[in-house]
Amino acid sequence: MKITWLGHAAFLLEGSRKILIDPFLTGNPNAPVKPAEVKTDLIVVTHGHGDHLGDAVEIAKVNDVPVVCIHELSRYLSKKGVEAVGMNLGGTANFRGFRITLVNALHSADVEEDDELISTGQAAGTIVELDGVRVYHTGDTDVFLDMQLIAEIHNPDVMLVPIGDWYTMGIKGAVKALELVKPRYAIPMHYNTFPVIEQDPENFKKAVEEAGLTIEVILLHPGESFEL
Ligand code: NI
Ligand code: MN
């Protein structure tokens, strides 16, 4: 599987299929591609915040592919003319060649539109299993002890973990989250997009080593890929 970081919390997973998660490109100063350039077979959106929902509607329409998300957000997206597949926490959807699970996240989740807040359910994380590799994208979240349960049930190989602080856990929480989940690889996300989430990812890598964890931290620049 090839995992490409498209900046912030956006990732493209490529194997026998392509799966795009949280495609916030327009408005992200670090986005390496434009929405129209992204090719995908399916989109997963963890929650309704603009920096996750991002360009999902446009990309779904251009590629003519569905968006998988929590039920309430799927109702909102259906009204935008998108084929939205609503699920809920703990559920797994089997597609040809891959599986998508939504899991808990400790975060808020409303959509903001025309200065109004629209309730779109709860924030989620997702486990994507593609070609036998399991990737845990935590979504925006604080660390929580039940990550241990998520790890026991889903045994992820790779964890995509926010380190930016302010809106999510920072480095200290992210190290604790890795301790609970124990993936083989971890890729930090949700940092350096905006001034309030500035973070040196080298400090995260150092903190993981100092915690004595045998987890390989992969640092990517937006547009770079990790293959496993
Ligand atoms: Ni958020
Ligand atoms: Mn966010």
Structure description:
The protein is an alpha/beta fold and 228 residues long. The chain has a single domain, classed as Ribonuclease Z/Hydroxyacylglutathione hydrolase-like (Metallo-beta-lactamase, Chain A, 4-Layer Sandwich). Helices cover 21% and strands 29% of the residues. It contains six helices and 16 strands. Helix 5 packs across helix 6. The radius of gyration is 16 Å and the shape is globular. It binds nickel (II) ion and manganese (II) ion.
| Series of secondary-structure elements, N-terminal to C-terminal | EEEEHHEHEEEEEEEHEHEHEE
Bound molecules: nickel (II) ion, manganese (II) ion
Q: Helix count?
A: 6
What is the second-level CATH architecture? 4-Layer Sandwich
CATH uppermost class: Alpha Beta
Instruction: Tell me the distance between the termini.
Output: 6 Å
What's the alpha carbon Rg, rounded to whole Å? 16 Å
Overall average pLDDT: 98
User: Helix proportion of residues, in percent?
Assistant: 10-25%
Strand order of the largest sheet: 6-5-4-3-2-1-16
Shape: globular
Number of strands: 16
The tally of structural domains comes to: 1
* Sheet of most strands: 7 strands, mixed
Poorly predicted ranges: none
Proportion of residues in β-strands: 25-35%
Q: What is the CATH homology-level superfamily?
A: Ribonuclease Z/Hydroxyacylglutathione hydrolase-like
What name is given to the CATH topology? Metallo-beta-lactamase, Chain A
Question: Could you write a compact summary of the structure shown?
Answer:
This protein is of the alpha/beta class and 228 residues long. The protein is built from six helices and 16 strands.
